[in-house]
Amino acid sequence: MSTERSLVFNGINAATGDYLLPPMPPQQLADLIQGEERDPVLLSELKWRYQQTQATTFALREGLDPKNLAEAGWGVIFAANADPKINAAIREALSELLELRKTQAGPYYREYISGDGYRRGESKNDFLVRHGAGPGPVDPERVPYYLLIVGDPQSIPYRFQYEMDVSYAVGRIHFGTLDEYAQYARSVVLAERGAVKLPRRAVFFGVSNPDDYATSLSTQFLIQPLARAMQEDQPSWSVQTVLKDEAKKARLGKLLGGGDTPALLFTGSHGMGFPNGDARQVSQQGALLCQEWPGPRNPRPVARDHYFAGEDIGSDASLLGMMTFHFACYGAGTPYWDDFSKLAFKERSAIAPHAFIAGLPQRLLGHPKGGALAVIGHIERAWTYSFSWDQAGMQTGAFESTLKRLVEGHPIGSAMDYMNSRYAEIATVLSNVLEEAEYTQPDPYNLANLWTANNDARGYAILGDPAVRLPVAEDTAPGVPRPVLTAVPHHAGKVPVVLVRDFAIETPPTEFPAVSPAGSESASASQDFDAAISDAATFDAASFGLLDGNAVRQVRDSLSDTLKRLANQLAIFMGDVTSLEVATYVSEAMQDVKFDSQKGEFTAGAVQRALTRINFDGDMKICVPMNADEVDQDVWNVHTAMVAQAQANRAAMIKTVADVLAGLLGVSGLK
Amino acid sequence: MPARFEITGCDAPDMLGIWETRPEPAAFGAADPAAFAVGVEPEPSALIWRIDLPADPRFAANLLGQRRNAAATLEAALPAAGRRWSAFTGSIRPGAPASFAWDQPLPTPERELALLIQAARGPGSFSPDNEWLGGWQDTIEQARTFIEQTRRALLYFAWVETLQAGMPVARTQVNWLGSVTTVWRAGAGSAQAGLHGDALALALDTRRSWIRIAALTAANAAALTGLLTGPGAILAIPAAWRFIRDILAEFRQ
After folding, report:
1. Which of A553, A635, A642 to mutate against chain B (most B CBs within 10 Å)?
2. Tens-of-pLDDT digits for all 253 residues of chain B?
3. In this complex, is the C-beta atom of A667 within 8 Å of any C-beta atom belonging to chain B?
4. What is the rounded distance in angstroms from the CA atom of residue A502 to the CA atom of residue A334?
5. Distance CA A552, CA B113 (A)
6. Which of A10, A470, A549, B21 has the highest CB neighbour number within 10 Å of its CB?
7. Is A603 on the interface with B (CB under 8 A)?
8. Is the preceding omega at residue A483 within 30 degrees of 0, hence cis?
9. Helix, strand, coil % (nearest 5) of chain A?
10. Quick one: residue A151, left, alpha or beta (phi over 0 = left, psi -120 to 50 = alpha)?
11. DSSP character string of A199-228
């Protein structure tokens, strides 16, 4: 398999400076894809959606105008299981926006709150059926086309958003304070009422890090083509590119709230990824890695100066009215479960303590001086091949169409319909290929492309009200300076990161971290384990004066020392994993068999018939009797079965130990 | 003949309830003269996992399958134990006065934990003869024994022995890195190979579950420390261990 045909994935691990996922040969990914489980209900919906696309219709019922909320409707969805007081406070903070939408949507305005809200565990169909809607074109009389989810993705999962997005125009907001809700609401209301008239200017920001294939592709095949297409198609717009050496953090700062902030910003870069439970994960995962990053040949922890996160936006930033589109891993948010891990390892594993919205969009939307109206980004990892398939060439049609609709006055949710249709189409084609694969061997490269594109297309999400539009000046007007929010009533109160506590899955994280065969990570994990145990067992008995100090100390030491010894053992295990041996003996007289523990072999009546040694790098050595006639097929079958079992056990053991050590890293609150 | 699933050299009951345990470091095969003879083997601290199955291979395979399913169910219950722990302890504010006014009866694990936290924060004091603390002595010892047993299961070779109607089929020594050395009775067929393979898998699955339980105990205990003030902190590890044990017991019912 040639190196250049390996699949390259976006995303950089902040802790190591390495890729979040290693490049993978297509055949390997194709094998995994064919074993993936698929949801028949969702597939059916996607196929219907795809057929609609072929007929060039849209998700909204025929004859209804998606640009008119009085026809399309607008609704807001809260988490039914959240604390009613918190929901009420959020609703109050958003009241300005809700009143506006109520006026605009008239009879097609809905509030899904309390028992009508999203109930935990519901699928799209569950929710729709409960509210009188089924599959098919969106009928605003039943459920409005534009739906704003208000809540964190742990309480109202991203999966629900993906599913709803196939037919509806869905956005989401969740902030840490009531003030941010109120500020966002005011920003949207100002824009919708015409107080914001931005110059028609779009900037395309393309990072291309040294030696980095992924960003080289995204700049060449996504950012630059999109900019060219918009220049040609929208003569009334000023379109600018900021590429490669110009695409540095300081420049991005000027485009995101600084003096050079456009109406529309499209970025292409790696998104930052952090280990599960890392203290920076919730605030900085999905931050945009800029040109300063020296590339994959310098794998070291990524410097803070190399990426742009929400906290890099100052309190004086001027953002009001802008929209941004971030092509980057985790640019919009991070789910709790790792989809790729489920596919690759047949087991769900967590990639974060809980699902969350990325910090950068949150800051952009809820800014106190007036925020962005919407941010489009990616949930989970973004996949470069979705816009560049080597046989079909550049694939930017959906992006171009989305941007075209957006700059021509469609609400963002309607504009994104192209992206959602693309997801439906790819999912349908992928499904057909997989069905066919049961009979004929598919082209692994094609299959891998489809799968990556499917995941990529599904993962785009709107953060913000899906009914917002770009508030730009008329064709010939120059635009006016951005206004600044003033006199937004103060709404005191913080909002929980996770609204519905039952969903707050905190321990044990079950990610599958990269395993280093020996050394520092294991030792570090062991030390952290010690710290966690010490936390659990340490107190100074003498200071209480109530217990016999020696007795307490004895119990404490006994428990914590036992745990520490176990931790050390686990850490050593990770360092010792080098090779695997499977030896098979046969004996006519089992009662006579002895085991020489010094030599590690059976003696006295046991005859060795086969030995397999597998090194960590995959090399395998097999010893069988010299005379081929002596190979007993039954014994050989037994031996090969034991080899397979030993390998499976080794893999399971490594995973267990890795999970355990990773979980304990989280416990001790590490970095 | 009923099947036997037995671990010898094991002081604590198997938390998964899959195996009977025998504390004495019985010599390998000593219980059955027809079993493997004692040579240089095995180290006194090694655990011996012995499964004695009926002669009928299909019946034997069925019994083994039932145990493996039970083990898998309990393994799958561990994340639930973590979530329930987080959900419950997360609802209690560190340092806040103990107040547990529940609308409905709590399940046993949560109730026991609540009582511990309530007692640890209450006006009463711990003392060596405190009757309430004394009630924890068994739990403290069981938790310690379990963790020590898990460590031993990792530290020393595991010996897994499969017999049918008391006659040895195969015996495998697994080192802690997973390398295996197996001696088979001459003429053992594919059915016997399958049985021993399943027996080996059951033993190793159990060992991994023990590791996860120990780790979850440590993680949960660390989280509990902030909620247990004063000498109550000493009970963080045993309380965390007992919580998991009780959850697993629920799943076994």
Report:
1. A642
2. 678 999 988 777 888 889 998 876 544 443 332 233 333 344 556 788 999 999 998 899 999 999 999 898 888 888 888 888 888 887 765 544 333 333 346 778 887 787 777 666 554 333 333 455 666 778 888 888 888 888 777 777 788 999 998 889 999 988 877 888 899 988 888 888 999 999 999 999 998 899 889 888 888 887 777 676 655 667 888 889 999 999 898 887 6
3. yes
4. 19
5. 20
6. A10
7. yes
8. no
9. 45, 15, 40
10. left
11. -SEEEEEE---TT-HHHHHHIIIIIHHHHH
Q: Which residue type occupies A457?
A: A
Measured between CB atoms, does A542 come within 8 Å of chain B? no
Strands A374-378 and A388-389: unpaired
Show which of residues 606-635 on chain A sit within 8 Å of chain B, judged by CB atoms: 606, 634-635
CB A425 within 8 A of CB A50: yes
Taking CB atoms and an 8 Å cutoff, what residues of chain B touch A649? 174, 178, 201, 204
pTM of the model: 0.55
In angstroms, how far apart are the furthest CA atoms of chain A?
A: 99
Rounded CA-CA distance A656/A659 in Å is 5
Instruction: List beta partners, residue A12.
Output: A19, A272
Q: Where are the domains of chain A?
A: 3-499, 513-671
The region, left, alpha or beta by phi > 0 then psi within -120 to 50, assigned to residue B32 is: beta
Is the Cβ–Cβ distance between B236 and B225 less than 8 Å?
yes
A463 DSSP β-pair partners: A172, A375
CATH class of A3-499: alpha beta
Residues B105, B106, B109, B110: what is their CA dihedral angle, to the nearest 10 degrees? Answer: -140
The C-alpha atoms of residue A404 and residue A416 are separated, in whole angstroms, by 10
Distance from C-alpha of A226 to C-alpha of A485, rounded to nearest angstrom = 32
**How far is residue A129's CA from residue A143's CA, in Å, rounded to a whole number?**
10
Contact A395, A387 (CB under 8 A): yes
Residues of A in contact with B193 (CB under 8 A): 637-638, 641
Beta bridge partners of A580: A614
> Cβ–Cβ of A660/B150 closer than 8 Å?
no
Tokens of A397: 């049609």
At residue B168, the 3 state secondary structure works out as: strand
Strand A146-150, strand A74-78: pairing? parallel
The token pair at A366 is 């809820």
